[in-house]
TrEMBL record:
GO terms for biological process: intracellular protein transport; vesicle-mediated transport. It comes from Lentinula aciculospora. This is Adaptin N terminal region-domain-containing protein. Residues 737-762 have a biased composition (Acidic residues). Residues 699-715 have a biased composition (Polar residues).
């Protein structure tokens, strides 16, 4: 036994080795062909042997030639000169050759329309092939030939394939409809009719492609969906993954266009039953393995469901963050749009949005925005620490976003103001210009916000008062190189150089204010345009506040002289405007040389000092609030929320109807309740049934009656037991005691009484029995029943 077993193992091993060797040799041949493909193709640019191989009778030669042609096409070579030889192999029996021929024909059918028309007959014949794959491939190629004159043929082929028994062929027919419509839009009525018929398809494989065809050909004909809406909702779970996405988008558009908006009132939520059907049918898809399906379901729940179902999308979205980096990038865009509308959904899960070292710049940026949206009093401390930690990130944009987010935290949670100010003040000492400049921008915004509200930043701590912060910034003016940051510091110095909140009635200014003007005036010509404008304004403000200060007057005269002849016209215009304003404040400081012409000579209105202060100071402390208005119209599922720019492919979500269309339009025969089972006979009951057949046991068989007898009988499980049971019953019958005779008589009397009752109620109990009219037929039926069942039939 063991020897035979070993021989079997040895034989199987040898067979396996032979098969592996054959497989390796075949694969090595293909690998060698791929390796030396480039060199062989370079040496054979003119294709001297390709024509010979295409005309060969060997399928292997033809296959090699077609592979070489497809390789040339993939490299961008033009091989249309072989079109005539390739078309000859359209009807090849080899499926691999036919596939490559179809690819080649699709590529060059537009350039060789006459030769492509020669192969249409073959494609039409393939539409009747017994193999559904060949039928589908023929239709795909036929619809892909971009020759306008074949439009009618393509329409007929689509109509024929739309009624094919194979769901795969019907799927290809649905995908061919948009191609035909793009080729010739005059076939629109016929294509809409075909789509209407295909919407009745119950195959999950093809219904998703029908949705694609509907969106491409007739997206506004939602009236065609009325009677199919509920059936499509029920088919959602069974449709293929990519078909589910298109079907969900179609059903969402239908729901918002044809169904009433969910209403929230004092008694609860009023949701239409068809919307509930859509939500219940799509809810299982939240567990799909395809992230695109999950995001499509999220879109349906967010835009079609009431507020109570929005929480169901949180866990599936968090699950997608762990799949891959690419999926995480798209999912974060969805979550960011949802969090801006309802941050309470994701606030408990803020830890899931902390940044990782291997995150991309885009992912880190969106996580920072999410943390800002989710911040509240309970979680502001860990979020603040997370943002502080990532201010040392190697990417400058991430650093700038983190510092800006810190300032946003101080605005959202006023209790964190002092912590944010302390952190931003420390950042000014950082050696990196990016950190310093962005910290200054945020500090300027916070100081401006607090002072515009009429309160100091920290009245309890003088070290952190507004003037102290501005003073520290003024002393760092030489270390600040970012143009926007320098402009912010200069503006703060000019706006808040007086100890009070306003400049009205002030007679003195801070000592560091003229020093800032002196430092910036030295390098005025090298400053950025934005900084030049603020330096010019600072000189005018200081002169208005201290018109008698000679040093300030000289600095002002020097700055205005430089600005008057600057290369930038904005700076020149600013200097002329300010010189005119200051003419009534300190004319002695402005009338040197040809700086300005005296107002007495050119005429005009001279403003008083108080009026100039109103122009320069009042109304400049207000802060424009940033409420992300640019993202308010972002739609979940659009390409714009990922790229940051609107795209032509973004679908506009339709508005709700207040009442919707009638629900009866969506009623279909499939929704009707199943009627109870009725009698098979359609004739009305008769009082005296003639020739009704009634079965009763004859003398040859004894059938026990009653439920106990029925339950006690042991039924045969196979044919042998059936015959043995019959033989055993005859033996038991002969061995019965005489005492059983009385019982049999009682049973026969009971049966006679039952038969009399059956005859009286025959119009109800024998409505579906056989009816026999003639006596001969009744006699024949009687004999047949007796022979088959052992019962007598009597009428």
């Amino acid at each position: 036994m063991s020897v035979d077993y070993l021989n079997t193992i040895t034989e199987n091993a040898s067979r396996l080795g032979m098969r592996i060797q054959e497989s390796l040799s075949e694969h090595s041949r293909e690998i060698n062909l791929a390796r030396f493909n480039a060199s062989s193709l370079e040496a054979d640019d003119k294709g001297r042997n390709i024509r010979k191989q295409l005309d060969s009778s060997s399928d292997r030669e033809k296959l090699d030639a077609m592979k070489r042609l497809i390789a040339l096409i993939s490299k961008g070579r033009i091989v249309s000169e072989y079109f005539a030889q390739v078309v000859k192999n359209v009807a090849s029996q080899n499926l691999e050759i036919r596939k490559l021929v179809y690819i080649y024909v699709l590529r060059y059918a537009e350039q060789e329309p006459d030769l492509a028309l020669l192969s249409i007959n073959t494609f039409q014949k393939d539409l009747n092939d017994s193999n559904p794959f060949i039928r589908a491939m023929a239709l795909r190629v036929l619809s892909g030939i971009r020759v306008p004159m074949v439009g009618n043929i393509v329409v007929l082929a689509i109509k024929k394939s739309a009624a094919d028994f194979s769901p795969y062929v019907r799927k290809v027919a649905a995908l061919a409809i948009p191609k035909c419509y793009q080729l010739d839009d005059s076939h629109l009525p016929s294509l809409i009719e075909t789509i209407t018929k295909m919407l009745n398809d119950t195959s999950p494989l093809s219904i998703g492609s029908v949705a694609v065809a509907f969106e491409a050909v007739c997206p506004t004909r939602l009236d065609l969906i009325h009677i199919k809406y509920r059936r499509l909702c029920k088919l959602l779970v069974e449709v293929d993954e990519w078909g589910q996405i298109d079907l969900l988008n179609l059903l969402l558009r239908y729901a918002r266009t044809m169904l009433p908006r969910p209403i929230v009132n004092m008694d609860g939520e009023e949701v239409d039953k068809d919307i509930e059907l859509l939500l219940s049918s799509s809810e299982p898809l939240l567990q799909s393995r395809n992230p695109a399906v999950v995001l499509a379901v999220v879109r349906v729940f967010w835009y079609a469901g009431p507020l109570s179902v929005h929480g169901k999308v949180v866990r599936p979205l968090l699950r997608l963050l762990q799949i891959s980096k690419v999926v995480e990038r798209v999912t974060l865009s969805y979550v960011l749009v949802l969090a801006r509308n309802n941050a309470s959904l994701f606030s408990p899960h803020y830890v899931r949005f902390f940044m990782l070292s291997d995150d991309s710049r885009q992912v880190k940026g969106e996580k920072i925005q999410l943390l800002v949206c989710l911040i509240n009093y309970e979680n502001h401390q860990p979020i603040f620490r997370e943002l502080i930690e990532h201010t040392e990130d190697p990417n400058d944009q991430v650093v700038a976003d983190c510092i800006t987010a810190i300032g946003r935290c101080a605005e959202v949670v006023p209790e964190s103001m002092q912590t944010c100010l302390a952190a931003l003040t420390e950042m000014i000492k950082n050696p990196h210009d990016v950190v310093v400049s962005n910290a200054i921008l945020v500090l300027k915004h916070l100081v401006q916000t607090q002072l515009s509200q009429g309160s100091s930043i920290n009245a309890a701590n003088p070290a952190r008062s507004s003037l102290d912060i501005i003073s520290s910034l003024a002393k760092k003016i030489d270390d600040i190189h970012h143009p926007e940051a320098r402009a912010c510091v200069v503006w703060l110095v000019g706006q808040y150089c007086v100890p009070g909140q306003t400049a009205h009635g002030a007679t003195s200014i801070a000592e560091w204010a003229p020093d800032v003007l002196r430092k910036t005036a030295k390098g005025f010509s090298k400053e950025d345009v934005l900084v030049k404008l603020q330096i010019t304004t600072l000189a005018a403000k200081l002169l208005v506040l201290c018109p008698a200060d000679q040093t300030v007057g000289l600095l002002n005269q020097y700055v205005l002289s430089l600005a008057r002849y600057d290369r930038n016209y904005d700076v020149r215009d600013r200097a002329r405007v300010l010189s005119s304003l200051l003419a009534g404040v300190a004319p002695s400081a402005l009338t040197s040389n040809d700086l300005i012409t005296p107002f007495e000579e050119k005429g005009g209105v001279v403003l008083r000092s108080e009026q100039v202060k109103v122009v320069l100071f009042d109304g400049k402390a207000s802060v424009a609030s940033d409420n992300h208005t640019e993202h308010s119209n972002a739609i979940v599922g659009s390409l714009g929320i990922i790229t940051g720019k609107s795209a032509l492919s973004d679908v506009i979500l339709p508005d709700w109807l207040e009442e919707g269309v009638e629900s009866a339009l969506r009623d279909s025969p499939d929704d009707a309740p199943v009627p109870p089972l009725q009698s098979m006979s359609s004739d009305p009951p008769r009082a005296d049934p003639v020739g009704a057949v009634v079965l009763k046991p004859n003398a040859r068989s004894s059938v026990p009656t009653g439920s106990s007898a029925t339950n006690s009988r042991k039924w045969a499980s196979n044919l042998d037991d059936f015959f043995n049971e019959g033989a055993g019953s005859e033996t038991e019958k002969s061995s019965e005691d005489d005492n059983d005779t009385d019982d049999e008589e009682d049973e026969e009397m009971g049966e006679e009484e039952d038969e009399e009752e059956e005859e009286g109620d025959s119009d109800e109990r024998h409505e579906g029995e056989y009816e026999v009219d003639s006596g001969e037929e009744r006699e024949v039926l009687h004999k047949a029943v007796v022979n088959e069942t052992g019962y007598e039939a009597f009428g």
